[in-house]
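User: I'm putting together a teaching handout on how sequence relates to shape, and I'd like one worked example. Could you take Thiopurine S-methyltransferase from Methylomonas subterranea, show the sequence you're using, and then write out its predicted structure as tokens right after it?

Assistant: Happy to. First the sequence, then the structure tokens directly below it.
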Amino acid sequence: MDQAFWHERWRQNQIGFHAEAFNEHLQRHWPALQVVQGETVFVPLCGKSRDILWLMAQGYSVKGVELSSVAVKAFFAENGLSAHECRKENFTVHQLDGLRLFCGDFFQLGFNDVGDVAAVWDRASLVALPPVMRAAYAARMRQLLKPGTRILLVAFDYPQWEMQGPPFSVPTAEVGELYGGWCEVELLATKDVLDDEPHFRQRGLSRMQEQVYKLTVD
């Protein structure tokens, strides 16, 4: 799964992963991270997520990274926002008060781009990646985040052979493999979601759970 795949998904508006409503897990479990107002939250592979607006409304600064310029431009246009745009090394950076969106390849980010963040909101980034890319993604996150950073992670658990991702199944054992060596891993909640997501049943799934984790970087 290369960059062309995601550019094409956005170009054709095949973005079933995008949600208009603020994420329920974000609203319910964010307090468990104990992030202080005024601190910075990182949203990787953010698309045009409206969760960015929710985080800003709670008093946080937000940094996001997104590959697709279509997604970034749509975020600002659809929310009636105007940002200053500049070029920084491998990224086009869109900036306004309390928000910086890096348009470019996540794997090109450096610690100086992200290292001052206090927390990470990961709803649709880890689960968007196939297995070999998930290992590289977690390794890069380890390079980017300082000790004490908290991550609120949402993952899916379903029989992978029943459906081709994305989103991919990332069960608890794999979360432990990816993050356990450098984070404290706490499972906050598990929710059966197949009845709420009938399109996944139509794609052949017999079981699907969302699992919410709090990760704390050692």
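A couple of points you could highlight for students: The chain has a mean pLDDT of 91. The radius of gyration is 17 Å.
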